[in-house]
Amino acid sequence: MSSATRNKTYVLVHGAYHGAWCWKEVTQTLRGKGHTVYTPTLTGLGERSHLLTAQTTLDTFIEDIAQVIKFEDLSEVILVGHSFAGSVLSAIADRMPDRLRHLVYLDALILNSGESSADRSPERVEAYRQKAIASGDGLSIPPAEPIHYGITDSEQAKWYETKLTPHPLQTYYDKLHLKNTLGNGVPTTYIACSNPYFATTEASRTIAQSMPGWEYLEIPTGHNAMSLMPEQLTQMLLAIT
Q: Could you tell me which residue ranges the AB hydrolase-1 domain spans (predicted)?
């Protein structure tokens, strides 16, 4: 049985401002081919946006995913993380590598231990956050326009505008703490969105290409490949062994 047809277990983790909703098309195709797919929404986002508090931290996000893996008795997991969720992937690999089959960083942040998401942000992105902090509730950062994620189709943009939610502020400034080397020996693939490249993940792409044994791939679309090229992205995920 080929790697594309053998039943696999995928856990797809969305990025900042998003929720499980962003994986809809990819999820439908994977499940249609007989695979098991979980798309947990991180605390304070999407349909769980009502749970956002000042105590929502990066560790909250990490526990969100760890608890799904634990209580659903998952093993041999292909763990996929988009954008901000790269830090969550790294933490899960650090804490429970025995449950994982493969890591897939989808145009995602790769942080070194002791770094925060804010440490990797371009100046204009951090300036946007600081402006939002000054004028907001101190708990969250409002989402950027859909075009920021590469969404140019007007109907798709309207749909995104109804789904994007503010992101818990503290998670941007929490440091990632790892006890082991990055990836912790779990087979890893980095998929970069290359048309255009996303400025926030520039350093992460460089790290991914320098990691011994990691596979580096590109998909010729904007940052949100799961909405812009769902079929091609799904085929790439199906090819993961």
A: 11-233
